[in-house]
Amino acid sequence: MPAENVGEDKNLVTPEAATKQEITIRQMDIDDIAAVYHLGENLFTSEEFPILYRQWDSYEVAQHFTSDPRYCLVAEADDKILGFILATTIEKEGTAWKKYGYVSWIGVDESYQRTTLGRRLYSRLEDRLRDDGIRMIIADTEGDNYRAIAFFTNLGFVPRKEHVWLTKTLVRPITKRTKKRTRQPKQDRIEQPDELHT
Length: 198
Ligand SMILES: CC(C)(COP(=O)(O)OP(=O)(O)OC[C@H]1O[C@@H](n2cnc3c(N)ncnc32)[C@H](O)[C@@H]1OP(=O)(O)O)[C@@H](O)C(=O)NCCC(=O)NCCS
Known about the structure:
single chain; 5 strands; alpha+beta; 30% helix; 6 helices; 18% strand; 5-stranded mixed sheet; Aminopeptidase; binds coenzyme A
């Protein structure tokens, strides 16, 4: 998410109106997969979430739903999905707690943000993780997603350390074949026997 004014108020629904509306937090079911995916599509665009190891797609939603249904929750009112949280657990031998909760994705419909929906979704998840013996929960987000950082901090998360990711573009090695290809002008090129049917 791009840098933004943390205090920016884009609410269309006031917290008071949201508390009057009957919003249910419940475990996700199979029929919610499409709605959760489309809500996330509006919230996690690829320019805003450039991390390559985590990509928002329908497979991501279906995979969480299949592997950790207990940790997939939605907020719903009048048959509309207004928010979701998808989480999992990670086991790491040789570490203090061995098994950790991991908040993979959380999203709230823009018009319902700052109405405590995110907090309610997270609290329900935390109860479940605690009941399952989890003692530490991890969340991560882009360094400039100030909204999410403020949210997690408010819930008692402590920023740990910067996660730095690096990239290197791999240039294809020059072989005899690629040399030949680059030397030959395109219009004169005759297909080589070993290129047929490739
Ligand atoms: C992050 C997100 C889920 C928060 O959900 P939310 O329902 O708006 O959050 P809540 O209303 O429950 O806020 C709880 C607390 O978090 C903090 N907080 C939440 N949004 C904030 C914001 N935009 N600016 C400052 N603090 C914020 C506040 O302390 C807030 O308490 P308060 O309203 O009493 O001050 C929501 O902003 C969202 O969907 N963002 C886009 C998706 C995203 O970035 N997800 C996280 C990475 S996966």
